[in-house]
Design goal:
It is elongated, with a radius of gyration of 20 Å. The protein has helices spanning 15-29, 50-59, 63-78, 85-96, and strands spanning 36-39, 44-47. It has 99 residues and is mainly alpha-helical. It has a two-stranded antiparallel ribbon with strand order 1-2. The relative contact order is 0.06.
Length: 99
């Protein structure tokens, strides 16, 4: 799904357009379960799938994640990084099979 933000909240956008966008953005940031939110008064719904929620969690930079990425970056740059190819391939297969 693609949302075109052309002129939403910008010059020429009505106050109701800006308010609706604000409610949609808040709905997208709240909660951790499947979300169903009434936006506006028109009965519009927003549903964020489990995959969408997982992707959103990955996008959030926690201090632990940033430190781990920095550590991995230094290992790669120094040539000391060794991937566990067997473990990685096993996890890829399990993920593909839904396990």
């Amino acid at each position: 799904m693609k949302i075109d933000h052309t002129n939403v909240g910008g010059a020429g956008a009505s106050a109701s357009d800006s308010a609706a966008l604000h409610r949609i953005q808040q709905a997208g940031q709240a909660g951790s379960g499947p979300e169903k939110t009434q936006a506006g008064g028109a009965g519009d719904k927003i549903e964020i799938s489990e995959l969408g929620q997982r992707l959103r969690m990955l996008a959030v930079e926690s201090p632990e994640r940033a430190a781990r990425l920095e550590q991995l970056s230094k290992l790669v740059e120094s040539g000391r990084y060794e991937a566990d190819s067997e473990g990685l391939s096993q996890r890829l297969i399990e993920d593909a099979l839904g396990g």
